[in-house]
Write a structure and sequence with these properties.
Distance between the termini: 68 Å
Strand content: under 5%
Helix content: 55-70%
Mean pLDDT: 89
Number of domains: 2
Order of helices and strands: EEHHHHHHHH
Strand order of the largest sheet: 1-2
Number of helices: 8
Largest sheet: 2 strands, antiparallel
Number of strands: 2
Structural class: mainly alpha
Shape: elongated
Low-confidence stretches: none
């Protein structure tokens, strides 16, 4: 078993460091990344670490924003010019796609957010994510929505996903919420109908 050149410990999970051109342990890779090791954008461990950190940061933003009614951008008609047609696009194009889960939507919106922050080069967009990104961009351009407003919109939609996912509706609650909103049918409509009796 080889030893890590940085900490001199036996390596359980070896990683080839592109910068050092040596084998290092996963602990040193994770803790010394960008501190002692100036990582490059073509390192898969660096990219995976950035994606993990971005997700952690964005979920913290989601939890900290829109917690009071007066903060809710859904009350702004200008913001709704982008949100409503975009969510309608998502619902009508992807509701019947069983791969379209709350987790997938959160991941997609995260990629969109960091692309707007010009930190999206580490992400790979699959075909569905590209379609969603293109439609969001098209509507944003049509409505002349500023970048900062677009980022707030993505955070607010992620807040909806985060608030609704799980529980009795499983991991497709956001799409069920959109179904209720656009058609007045589905499990959300049924539950709300029962609660109103």
């Amino acid at each position: 078993m080889s030893k890590c050149i940085l900490c001199n410990k036996k390596i359980k999970f070896a990683r080839k460091c592109l910068v050092l051109n040596e084998i290092i342990c996963s602990t040193c890779c994770g803790t010394k990344r960008e501190l002692e090791i100036k990582c490059t954008g073509d390192c898969k461990y660096f990219i995976a670490g950035q994606i993990k950190e971005n997700k952690k940061q964005i979920m913290q933003l989601v939890k900290n924003k829109f917690n009071r009614e007066e903060e809710d951008i859904y009350q702004d008609d200008r913001i709704l010019e982008l949100i409503l047609p975009f969510e309608q696009f998502v619902f009508y194009n992807y509701y019947n796609d069983i791969k379209m889960t709350d987790d997938f939507i959160t991941e997609c919106f995260t990629k969109l957010f960091y692309s707007l922050e010009e930190k999206g080069s580490i992400y790979i967009f699959n075909e569905t994510e590209t379609e969603i990104f293109d439609e969001f961009s098209r509507i944003a351009e049509k409505t002349k929505m500023p970048i900062e407003s677009q980022k707030l919109i993505l955070l607010r939609m992620m807040k909806s996903v985060d608030n609704m996912t799980g529980g009795m509706f499983g991991n497709r609650m956001y799409l069920e919420l959109l179904r209720n909103h656009f058609t007045g049918t589905g499990v959300v409509a049924e539950v709300m109908g029962k609660n109103n009796k």
